Amino acid sequence: MKQRKHIHLSGICGTAMASLAGLLQLEGHRVTGSDKAAYPPMSDLLRELGIPVMEPYAEANLDPAPDLLVIGNALSRGNPEIERALDARIPFSSMAALLREEFLTGRTSLVVAGTHGKTTTTSMLAWIYQVASREHPDLEPSFLIGGVAENFGSSFQLKPTRNFIVEGDEYDTAFFDKGPKFLHYFPDALILTHVEFDHADIYADLAAVKTAFRRLVNLVPRRGVIVAFDGSANVSECVQKAFCRVERYGFSEAADWRMLNLRHENGLTRWDVLHDGSLWASLEMSLAGEHNALNATAAAALASSQGIPVHAIKSALAAFKSVKRRLEVRAVIGGITVIDDFAHHPTAIRETLRALRSVYPGARLWAVLEPRSNTLRRKVLAADLIESLQLADRVEMAGVYQQERIPEDERLHPEDVVRALNAAGTPTQLSPTVDAILDAMVPQLQPGDVVAILSNGGFDGIYEKLPARLREQFAGS
In what order do the strands lie in the sheet with 163-168? Predict the structure, then answer.
């Protein structure tokens, strides 16, 4: 890979794939890509980079044949580009394998993993290193994040320095490699946020998820360190046999990095952190939510373990913005606030709604949900989903995305969720299309309302359609 190559990424609009495309372009390679459908924020990023994206998948997208094909994990046999590559023996790899070979080898690999919080925590850790590099340039990080970090305006960065910070995804790697991506990253240091059942399409049960995380823990060398959440029995089980130092963070008295006095005031989240029983720092940031304070504490703890001074950590967190599609304010029109959040698991939905309650106390909170992730499309966590959505005042629910692709006996039936929420006293409506959702919801919206749109996909353009409808309504009022 030292010479310039033509590298084509099939599935380029995935967050990690688009980031890899940017890194490869920085190395001087000619990069092209294809996807079924492009949507923000990664479609915007690729457009800014000038990387052409072909839609939809087609054998002709590989003519002339690239030097290397990178196959995204959402693609399987039968995809025309996979079939063309196999027939023509075009060399191919996965995102995770190529990232390791091309960018992690020879560097210090700092990995952030966990069922929840890893994108935000990775962004925080990268920003801490960036701020610290103002005094120590050799600390400026390379990174790959599964989202656009607003402090950088990007999901990737490549520098000629040693530290590479990477979000470690537990999802499978490719059709030819069904192991989790993060097993390719060989961490020198690791953050482990949460371990819960997720990705029901590839993990049979919670035990299988824990096995994957235990294998990741087993890759950390003796000289390394693991910073692990102390409020989860599953996390404790996964780090129990680590060969390196393990430092726990959270709210318990036994935590190495203990959080105290968490509060949200004057638009800021503030809390104290004790390290080994003594006050280490009082931290503040603009992000709301207990989950984000936990993420920040994890990033601070790992950075401190690597020698980053506390004043740089405090400054970085105080200036940290957010990640695109994480509690992102998309519009405020007529006193109605529209929030975009990637929440794709009942726990993430719960924490998102809790955070919005703290930021907008007294507001009427709407949750607009598209069950799109491979876990939410299944009924396995339906009870947890119903419990999480009860934190909203009103719920608008879309049909299950591509429900026909889920085995009949595994499908989530949204009408059952709607029935249960209404019975529990949370007014909920099921609508077949985004236009139907807007027809039902927009006339009921009032100044002061907060609308949280919850989806890990494009949701048929609702992020643009809802503000447009609100502008129309208030223009005519």
Answer: 154-157, 142-149, 163-168, 108-113, 189-192, 225-229, 245-250, 257-265, 268-275, 278-285
